[in-house]
């Protein structure tokens, strides 16, 4: 992506392999501005659901800037011809209108999830917000909130 909180572009994907071997992947990133590469691994359903990532490299012409930051993603506030004055449209689907107060409310209302993309960073687990953690609805592991005592130090609550 080229903006903090901006839309992601899938460059490469490998899934549903059952061989215990490495796969080589090579891709070309045609980006002329600073960008961020995200690598995501999703656990499989059994003990065979493993992933390994090794030897990531960039060509010498690509200058790594480990301390640089991307510009923030700015959501357009231009009124959509499809929405009334109290609603705004989703970024990738301008025909989907949601109330303006439902943008940046930590709930996804837009099908494309863009109502939560350009929100200012906030984090308060005490207010039962996930902050930058997300639940992948396709997986069985779901982040949840809890509080209480534990039987030993440095452990979490029993579920």
TrEMBL record:
InterPro entries in UniProt: ConA-like_dom_sf, LDL_receptor-like_sf, LDrepeatLR_classA_rpt, MAM_dom, MAM_domain-containing
Recorded superkingdom: Eukaryota
Disulfide cross-links: 104-119
Residues of the signal peptide: none
Residue ranges occupied by any MAM domain in the UniProt entry: 1-64
Keywords from the named record: Disulfide bond
PROSITE patterns: LDLRA_2, MAM_2
Pfam families: MAM (PF00629)
Name of the protein: MAM domain-containing protein
Organismal lineage: Eukaryota, Metazoa, Spiralia, Gnathifera, Rotifera
């Amino acid at each position: 992506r080229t903006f903090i909180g901006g839309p992601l572009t899938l460059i490469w994907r490998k899934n549903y392999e059952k061989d215990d071997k490495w796969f080589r992947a090579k891709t070309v990133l045609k980006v002329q501005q600073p960008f961020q590469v995200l690598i995501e691994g999703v656990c499989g359903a059994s003990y065979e659901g493993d992933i390994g990532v090794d030897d990531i490299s960039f060509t010498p012409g690509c200058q790594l800037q480990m301390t640089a930051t991307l510009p923030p993603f700015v959501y357009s506030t231009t009124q959509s011809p499809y929405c009334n004055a109290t609603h705004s449209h989703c970024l990738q689907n301008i025909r989907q209108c949601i109330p303006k107060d439902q943008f940046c409310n930590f709930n996804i209302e837009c099908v494309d999830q863009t109502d939560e993309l350009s929100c200012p960073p906030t984090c308060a687990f005490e207010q039962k917000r996930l902050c930058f953690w997300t639940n992948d609805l396709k997986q069985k592991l779901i982040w949840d909130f809890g509080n209480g005592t534990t039987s030993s130090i440095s452990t979490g609550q029993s579920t």
